[in-house]
Amino acid sequence: MVSFSTFQDTIELFRKNEIRFWVFGGFALDGIRGKITREHSDIDIYLVSDDLDKVLVLFQSDDYSCYKREVMYFIESADLKIGIIVLTEEDDKIIAHGNKTLVKFPKDIFLHDNTVSLNNMSFRIVPNEAIALDSKFSTHASDKSFGTKLKYDSALFRQIEIIKMRE
């Protein structure tokens, strides 16, 4: 499991090294709620493609295992697991291609700052439209339920193209 302290250290390391990223998944949902609601097995990150090499260099040591499985990157240690989806651009879309997902977001969706606070630490999460979509496929009932109550721009949400989504 990834402790909040490990999450906090990871986010601070990314910030200090000017990594452009967005948190999604369980920690993002807890950030919206403003409290830790469950244990987290990993930290889910959307990452700007230009920053991937910087991230891999940061974790280049015997303490970490960095690898690519299918199209996603993973960083693991005894107390840390990060799953990274690298964002790419295509025309007026931002592409998020994970191992079980392929989603095209309108570029405008990432222009709005979506910062949350958890235990007195602020961090940027993916737009609420992306969280609402992601929560529909969560394996955690509380996250799935919470996602249905989330406020988001329905016009932007309708512009999201789901090419492939996990079952």
Structure description:
The protein has 167 residues and is an alpha+beta fold. 30% of the residues lie in helices and 31% in strands. It has 6 helices and 10 strands, in the order αβαβαβββββββαααβ. Strands 1, 2, 3, 4, 5, 6, 7 and 10 form an 8-stranded mixed β-sheet that branches. Helix 4 packs across helix 5. It is globular and about 45 Å long. The relative contact order is 0.17.
Count of domain modules: 1
Strand content: 25-35%
**CATH C-level name:** Alpha Beta
Overall average residue pLDDT: 94
Gyration radius, rounded: 15 Å
In helices, the fraction of residues equals 25-40%
Shape: globular
Corresponding CATH architecture: 2-Layer Sandwich
Q: Quick one: how many beta strands?
A: 10
Category by helix and strand content:
alpha+beta
CATH-assigned fold name: Beta Polymerase, domain 2
Oligomer: single chain
Give structural attributes.
alpha+beta, 6 helices, 167 residues, 10 strands, 8-stranded mixed beta sheet, two-stranded antiparallel sheet, Beta Polymerase, domain 2, 30% helix
